[in-house]
Each structure stands twice: as structure tokens, then as C-alpha cells.
Description:
Layout: H1 4-14, E1 23-24, H2 27-33, E2 36-41, H3 51-61, E3 68-71, H4 75-87, E4 91-94, H5 101-109, E5 113-115, H6 124-135, E6 138-140, H7 146-162, E7 168-172, H8 177-189, E8 194-200, H9 205-212, H10 238-245, E9 248-252, H11 254-268, H12 278-286, E10 293-298
Parallel strand pairs: 2-10, 3-4, 3-6, 4-5, 7-8, 7-10, 8-9
Antiparallel strand pairs: 1-2
Amino acid sequence: MLSLSEVLAARARIAPYVHETPVLVCQGLDRLLGKRLFLKGEHLQKTGSFKARGAMNAALLLKGARGLLALSSGNHAQGVAYAGRVLGLPVLVVMPEEASPLKKEAARAYGAQVVDRGVRYENREEVARLLQEETGFALIHPYDDPRVMAGQGTVGLELLAQAPFLEAVLVPVGGGGLASGVATVFKALSPTTRVLGVEPEGADDAKRSLEEGRIVRLAQAPRTRADGVRTLALGSLTFPVLKERLDGVLTVSEEAILEAERLLFTRTKQVVEPTGALPLAAVLEHGKRLPEVLGLVLSGGNRDFLP
Ligand SMILES: Cc1ncc(COP(=O)(O)O)c(C=O)c1O
């Protein structure tokens, strides 16, 4: 089970390579929603998402790797590509054909080779394993890896230091790496702060998994504009952490995600991708059930620009 000391060690290890991201506040938004919101700006992180943290931590812990291999719907690919560039290692990333062209291009820009032909959300793990056998590169899983979970937890350490009075923290949940890390930090250091996951209605596997006490796997990739959380299931390592430390999961509609993106753009002037807007969408839809002082993890900003 992931421990606070692993997250603390990750923070020291990755500090030279990642940003301490700012916490933003917006009085207009607070007035509109009747809350005090503290927005953790991971869209301003290296590579445009928190994924640089876990990827960097995992890569720094490898010994004698010939190269790095990642499977990703986008942001983890950029994280691993960035880590490879820092460490001078070649990087292969397996991305679904339908993944965001911008995210593929960004991974290439960091020097990674993108493998996407015939790759779907459903078969990508198998493709990555075959490539691993062929190349001998070290596979860095996007969430089900204690090194990755510890790296993502450093978001929680920073947020707690920047806003030590939060009543609840809202975190997007895909495979659960970010939520595992953040929940581990808050349960250890600020146990009265509730940590809540957020996922789209059509991708409610985390909510169902925690309710049913077993990992519920979706039969196919959910259709949602939040492309970072199209994962089919929680991981075998993230699930037990979330079961013990997460206080619940909220689901949100596609309309609420779009409205949250719009508010982040118009009110706070921040470019946040749909997945990063999930926590604000949860405030829009479940505000009445939530406390007043909230931390929202804006987990990424890598969105396609559509004129
Ligand atoms: C922007 C963004 N937020 C949240 C997540 C979900 O992270 P996790 O899989 O660790 O739950 C992802 C995953 O790709 C992401 O890209």
C-alpha cells in the first residue's frame, strides 16, 4: 500500500525537474458558486499536466534502462517523453489511434516515437507488452505503479502546504494514480479534509468499484469529452488505496464538464482540458452537497484548439 514516506521521497527526487504549480483563486467564480475555491494549477506543470511528476519519479528510480515505454491516452505519454529527454533515453509511446492529435504531436516534440496504428483503448496494454518484449525498454504504467502513484501524490503535498485549511479536495479519477497519491497525503497529514474523486457519468467505473468493493471493468472505452479518464478500470494497486482512503466519487454530466471548461476560460482565463475541468463540473452539479472551502485539482491543460 502506498505510504506517505514514498510521496515525500518522490518530492525530493523530482523537485529539480518539475514545477511547484500555483494555487489560483477567482473571486468572481467564488461569488457565482457560493464557495471558496483553491485551484491547483497542474495545467501549468511541465508537459501541461501532473503526469510529468509520476513519470519522472518512476524514470529516476530505474537502473540501467535502455529506453522507456509508455501506454497512454495522451498526457502520460508526454510525461514519459519528457522524462526520457531529461535522462537521455529513447522513448516509445503506445497511444490509441483516436487519441488527441495535439497530445501525439506533443509527445513527438519531446522526442518520443508514437506507436498508434491499430491501437485502441481496449488492446493498448497488449500492444505495449509485446513492444516491451521486443525492445527490452522499461514500461512505465500510467497509474498502476507505486512510483507513479507516489509522484502524483506530490500534487497533494504542495496543495496542502499552499492551502492548509481545505474542507474537501476534488480530484479527477481515471486509473486512480492521482487520486491515490493525493488521498494518501491528505489522510496522513490532514485527515479531516475529505478527498473526493470525480469522473464522467458515462465512465463511472471508479464509483461502481468502490460501491461494489471490487474492480468494475467497463466493456469498452466510454464516450466522454474528458479523454484523460477513458480508462476501462482502476488498477490492482490503486483500487485498495482508494478503497481505504478516498471519501467518495462524484459523477458529472458532459454538459457540466463543458460548462466548467467555459467558466475556467471566461472567469479565470485558464486553458484547462476537459478532464482537468471535472472537479469544477462536480461543484456545478453537486455544490449543495459539498462544503464551502474546496481544493480543485486542475489536472491538465492539453486541449486541441478548435477555431
Ligand atoms: C488531465 C488528466 N487528469 C486526470 C487524469 C487521471 O489520472 P489517473 O489515471 O491517475 O486517475 C489523467 C489521465 O490521463 C489526465 O490526463
